[in-house]
Design brief:
Among the domains are: about 70 residues, Serine Threonine Protein Phosphatase 5, Tetratricopeptide repeat (Alpha Horseshoe); about 70 residues, Serine Threonine Protein Phosphatase 5, Tetratricopeptide repeat; about 100 residues, no CATH class. It is built from 21 helices and 2 strands. The chain has a two-stranded parallel ribbon with strand order 1-2. Helix 3 runs antiparallel to helix 4 and helix 20 runs antiparallel to helix 21. The longest helix has 25 residues. The chain is elongated.
Length: about 400
Amino acid sequence: MGASRGRASGLRWLVGLRLAAAIVVAGAPITVQPATAQPADQPSATVEQVGEIIRLCLAGQYPAAAVRACDVLLAQDFLSSEDRSRFLTRSAVALNGQRLLDEARDRLHRAIELHGDHAPAHFHLGINRLYAGDVASAIESLETAHALHPEAMSTVRLLSGLYRQTDAADRAVALWNGVIERDPDSVIARSALAGLWLALGEADRALAHLDAAVTLDPANHELANTRGTILKQSGHIEQALEAFSQALKIAPDFLVARANRGQAHALLGNDALALADFSAVLEALPRDVPTLLNRGNLHHHRGDGEAAARDWAIAAVAGGERIMRLFQVRSHLAGHYDGAFDGRPSDGLARAIAVCAWDPDCRPPSPQTYCDVAGVDPCQSPYVHIEGR
């Protein structure tokens, strides 16, 4: 009997939730009651039900409906100041998402006036100021949010990034050290500190934190890969190779580690193994520009100019102008294809792009792309003007 009564109550709550959601999203009026009130004759919902509607609207990216639902609640006289602050903050989240920054900021200030210890209000005020380009004020608001709720990792991550952006890496280090003081087993904090110390040129400190993270989470393939990256950058190539292989042992399809292992093999002179790793990555991602460049360099080192030029040409088309500005790629392509031609320096490059254009792995969207990348006039170049495609 009790179980059936509970199911009936739960069903009524869900029915009320769906009805309230439909009414709120449509913009029609609805009565909101405290949870203890008797059911009304007209369409009604509890604060909890409308709060759930707001959460669903925000999760589903319906900001206008979320603001309407918040405004329905904010019009109720029985709301506590804490609840009023909470729903002002939620409506500001939706307004921030729509980049209605002035209105969002006004609501966040009102939320803080009502309940100054509401950490999410300070956090989203920081987001608002960040959207407005005021980094210093954003940091100030986020520091307040962190002081009120130091366990919130979203605040720590964002604040740490802003510290690094403003050349205050020492403050970012102190921030993550504080996380470790509260939770010595925090893999997130150890990984973040490893990245910070690496950026500061302190490879040994970075490795110490990463080793601790790997000990805490030995089955984490991304940690093993990051450890390999630090070892490679600090010149410990054989150890890096072991770390990348460990990452692949945990996750055989982890292409980032396979590309990194290819680089380590190449640095150690294991050309055949490096070529196998690079080729495995490109089988899955035929236009991965860094791996195309690395495999092209390896082919060039081994004296296979044709294979090198093909990889570089595909990288040039896939990477666009940014890749074409790489002197090594541009000069090698031009040198390879200029051998049989008496033309401008760009002719060899244009020829490389045209050859690449006929390769099914290397086709950009339109012939104009070849001209843009090669930097030549298609009406004057015998290599780039391609019709019927």
